Amino acid sequence: MVGADGHRAVVSWAEIDPDFGGRRVLLATSMDGAPLDSAGPQLVVPDDHCGARFVSSVTAVRLGPLGDPAHPAG
């Protein structure tokens, strides 16, 4: 996930696969019933204790191998 401010977070398949970690990972489009239209969606990992993977104003969701983050493809 990539936020408008450049913050990035990675979630592995094993974390969310019910046969492994089974962790809840949310891409929230509303908060307390109010749409996040102007703020943009948010990545929320409720079980993270420090909230480091909270990403606000998500602008991109990338699925696939991580590769080398220092040299992104394309």
Structure characterization notes:
With about 70 residues, this protein is mostly beta strands. It has one domain. The protein contains one helix and six strands. The chain has one helix spanning about 15, and strands at about 1-5, 25-30, 30, 35, 40-45, 60. The strands form three sheets. The chain has a two-stranded antiparallel ribbon. β3 and β4 (about 35) form a beta hairpin. The chain is globular and about 35 Å long.
Give me a quick take on this structure.
The chain is mainly beta.
Number of DSSP helical runs: 1
**Main sheet strand line-up:** 1-6
Which sheet architecture does the biggest sheet show?
2 strands, antiparallel
**Structural class category:** mainly beta
Low-pLDDT stretches: none
Provide the gyration radius in Å.
13 Å
- Strand count: 6
Order of helices and strands: EHEEEEE
Alpha-carbon distance between the termini?
17 Å
Q: Tell me, what's the shape?
A: globular
Mean pLDDT: 88
The proportion of residues in beta strands is 15-25%
The total domain count is: 1
